[in-house]
UniProtKB/TrEMBL annotation:
Pfam families: CBM_2, GSDH. Residues 61-71 have a biased composition (Basic and acidic residues). This is CBM2 domain-containing protein. Residues 1-30 form the signal peptide.
């Protein structure tokens, strides 16, 4: 992880529905989901490529421009489609890699949402776990009715129907959110246990001015866990009996985890069912949290804490058990808001990025990879940049990653590539002679490591306007201020402890300062 980024590696109405708190233990699909997860590779198994050599890439798809997209879901029905939400239009669009974006939306609920605030609108969708045989679409949105946070189900007759009638909406759960327009949360996902999870922000404004983050009497500032299966009968949902607060007086039994500011995006690792939560920070720290499968009741500390730092000491409770994030980064380098994030479990880049959680920053496009280590810890590296204003990640049916960007709305395929292995080296640069407007120099590249350096290339920048005109014993070129020198057929390998010498001639305009830094095969030479 780059030090200059100062990123840290850190160890219906609710009242009527709560009556179902002691309903069935879980959906019928629960045991099947757990069994499938057990058969997948261990989430702690490292990918073959070291994380510090992983580089993220992206390719814009040929889809039409999207209207402020916020979520991506794949039905897994063999169709190859992906469903994408449009925040302000209140529409769910269908994309296929072969045919692009369908002209007409799959679902249009623009008449019942509000998007007056930047964080309001159609925020997320989830698809029924057995979508191919029992299709339904679940949506989280900000209602035009005083900004209520709303979770609804839209039944479907068949998985391939071209349009889902909006008037078939079944409202499952609402939460008042009328004071402020920000911090709506909005992720909705089915977990491997078959239950539906939904994130709600702390109610908005700043500094948790409504005191919701540590208040178990409201759903704001939490992630809820619901049983929406047929076993609930006529009820909109049941509360799973093993939810952590079903027996706590005054607590909302739907709550699974709390102490969150605005968990805009969370996801489940398909390999082990663990939960990754990216919580948007206040003014200093953005954070990523990670919970093992089935672990509820966690308090992430907001507003006592932001990241792992104390935010408001007066609202820290003595003896409270706050859970620190596994990664936090500050607002330097243009960072402003975390966008999580999914664990890559596809086949195409399995040798490079398998088991890596990928997340980015909305403003700076800085992107990080996080992996679990065998000792229960985590390793994190900055792995490059994605396009700016990424609002969500998603995976297609084969596990390959995509990301959507806000303005302009775009859909991007996310990939990975390997950086060259790091090398240990020194470079001696000597100006042998100067005359008028010219100079000659000799360069010695030494391999100080224990392994040969194959196909070496040395690069440096001239800061005095120097221009290389000719060279010998190396293939030397210059683009702008950057000079690249590569070995020839007979000296392309530098053995361990060995050196390669070459020379060059160039022109100068005034001064002739020596280069400040040399890089060999991408690694800075520091000895």
């Amino acid at each position: 992880m780059s030090n200059h980024r100062r990123a840290r590696r850190l160890a219906a109405t609710a009242g009527a529905l709560v009556l179902a708190a002691l309903g069935p233990a879980g959906p019928a699909a629960s045991d099947e989901s757990a069994s499938a997860a057990d058969q997948k590779p261990s989430a702690t198994a490292d990918a073959r490529l070291p994380l510090n050599r992983l580089q993220v890439t992206s390719t814009r798809t040929d889809s039409d421009r999207l209207d402020r997209p916020t979520d991506i879901e794949s039905p897994g029905d063999g169709s190859g489609r992906m469903f994408i939400t449009e925040k302000e239009a209140g529409a769910v669009r269908v994309y296929h890699p072969d045919s692009g974006l369908a002209a007409e939306p799959l679902l249009d609920i623009g008449d019942r949402i509000t998007s007056e605030g930047n964080e309001q609108g159609l925020l997320g969708i989830a698809l029924a776990p057995d979508f191919e045989h029992d299709p339904a679409l679940y949506a989280a949105y900000t209602s035009a009715d005083e900004g209520e946070l709303t979770l609804s189900r839209f039944p479907m007759q068949s998985p391939d129907q071209a349009s889902v009638p909006a008037d078939g909406e079944e409202v499952l759960l609402t939460e008042p959110h009328s004071e402020y327009t920000n911090h709506n949360g909005g992720e909705v996902e089915f977990g491997p246990d078959g239950y539906l999870y939904w994130s709600l922000g702390d109610g908005g404004n700043a500094g948790d001015s409504l005191d919701n983050g540590q208040n178990l009497g409201t759903l704001l500032g939490s992630i809820v866990r619901l049983d929406v299966s047929d076993s609930c009968g006529d009820l909109a949902y049941c509360v799973p009996e093993d939810n952590p607060f079903v027996s706590e007086p005054g607590a909302r039994p739907e709550i699974w985890a709390y102490g969150l500011r605005n968990a805009w995006r969370f996801s489940f690792d398909p390999a082990d069912g663990s939960l990754w939560i990216a919580d948007v920070g206040q003014g200093s720290w953005e954070e990523v949290n990670h919970l093992p499968a089935g672990e509820g009741g966690t308090n992430f500390g907001w507003p006592c804490r932001e990241g792992s730092e104390e935010f408001d000491a007066e609202r820290c409770e003595t003896g409270a058990d706050y859970t620190d994030p596994v990664f936090a980064y500050d607002h330097l380098d243009g960072n402003c808001s975390v966008t999580g994030g999914v664990v890559y479990r596809g086949d195409e880049y399995a040798d490079l990025a398998g088991g890596t959680y990928v997340m980015t920053d909305y403003c700076s496009a800085n992107t990080w990879g996080i992996r679990r280590t065998g000792d229960g810890g985590y390793t994190t590296e900055h792995i490059g940049e994605l396009p700016i204003q990424v609002t969500a990640f998603g995976a297609d049916a084969s596990g390959e990653l995509y990301a959507v960007t806000d303005l302009p709305g775009g859909l991007h395929r996310v990939g990975f590539e390997a950086l060259p292995p790091p090398v240990r080296c020194t470079v001696d640069y000597t100006v042998d002679s100067e005359w008028g407007d010219g100079f000659s120099a000799s360069v010695v590249v030494t391999n100080t490591g224990d392994e040969p350096i194959e196909d070496w290339t040395a690069r440096w920048d001239y800061t005095g306007g120097q221009q290389v005109t000719t060279a010998w014993q190396a293939d030397v070129s210059q683009e702008g201020t950057t000079v690249s020198a590569s070995g020839l057929d007979y000296n392309r390998v530098i053995p361990a402890g060995g050196s390669r010498r070459f020379g060059l001639q160039g022109t100068i305009t005034a001064t002739n300062p020596a280069p400040e830094e040399f890089r060999v095969n991408g690694s800075v030479c520091e000895g």
